[in-house]
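Recall that a protein's primary structure is simply its ordered list of amino acids. Everything else, from secondary elements to tertiary packing, is in principle encoded there. The following example makes that idea concrete.
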Amino acid sequence: MRFGVYLPTFAWRDLRLDQAARVKAFARKAEELGFDALWVAEHFLEAPGLYGTVWMSPLLCLAHAASVTSRIRLATGLLIAPYYHPVTLAREIQTLWFLSGGRVAASCWGSGRAGTSTSSKRSA
């Protein structure tokens, strides 16, 4: 059985640099504790009653986590695909794949509409 954990990539309105640095410390600790994957989500807007914050850039946070870890897999739990040009998104994921040593795991690409999504899985 494999276990993953979500990186704390919340971008609260009063986010400070020292709080944003927690991504690095969290990634290191998750790998040290033996977790198999780090996951991130993407939300551009607050949704009262569901979540009260937006998230930092998921791919940049995964790249940051990749730079301080060596084994743990990297994945997006939700990436809003329509916000990206397909060629640019493919290049960014490819870059993350190579810079991380091939540690990009299964991901979920959303359309941005409630109740719809498309999964794209890469074998582990």
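The chain has one domain: 4-120. Residues 36 and 44 are 27 Å apart (CA to CA).
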